[in-house]
Amino acid sequence: MGLLEFDPPQRYLELIGQFRLIDDTFFDVCFDGNIEGMQLLLRIFFHRDDIIVKEVISQRSATNLYGRSTSFDVIAVDSKGKIYNVEIQRSNEGANPKRARFNNSLIDSREINKNTAYKDFPEVWIIFITEHDIFGANLPMYHVERNIMELNKPFSDAAHVIYVNGDYKANDELGLLMRDFFCPDPSKMHYPELAKRVDFFKNDEKGVSTLCEIMEKLQEEGRREGHQAGLAEGEKIADRRTASKLLAKNMSVEEVLECVNLSKDEILELAGQN
After folding, report:
1. Which of 176, 198, 272, 189 is nearest to 26 (CA)?
2. Across all residues in the chain, what is the average pLDDT?
3. DSSP state for residue 94 in the 8-state scheme
């Protein structure tokens, strides 16, 4: 990394150097508005060269009528109006099938208005990129579809789920893509569409500043909540709050350890609560 005009905390710079696309927060940042990168992912996932992405938004939140909410990693829309929710899931629980169901329901609630005819409901794809092979069958991808069991025919409700196996590292398009997702060094990545974006946030002053601001914002949110508890206790509360937020974004215990003044045992305890 070259010389920076600002002076970010060293622990932030060390963490930024370790970030990979399989890390939830870094994925969100790298793909926010990144039409070229998302188009690459979808073309590889679907083995098609004609997918044209029109919009990409990260960290869009949605809440149902009863207050249950979620924050989508990335939402993309293609030229045909198909909606893709791409999520990084580093834990098996995060990739729970019922989470896919919930995400799909919230997308429907946001995108379908009272005048939308059933035939015009958008096609929705929930795509989980998992750190490990959660189904254990050594397949590169798992496609989930609803079927009419007695007829052995698809139900055709335009709702789909895909699990992408992060353990898959073969020498084909998808395997090379997963290698890039686990590579912290942009100079060693295979796809230039991803490497240049990763390089920006790791080696360009504006990109590094953006990531530092995000991490500082998480710290500040924790400090504000802990202020009334006194300085020492407030700092502890702030660190615990920050650690919980980072764990909720699927950061590893080791990564969180670099950002807060807590012991590994304390972070492991918070991880268990999350």
Report:
1. 198
2. 87
3. G
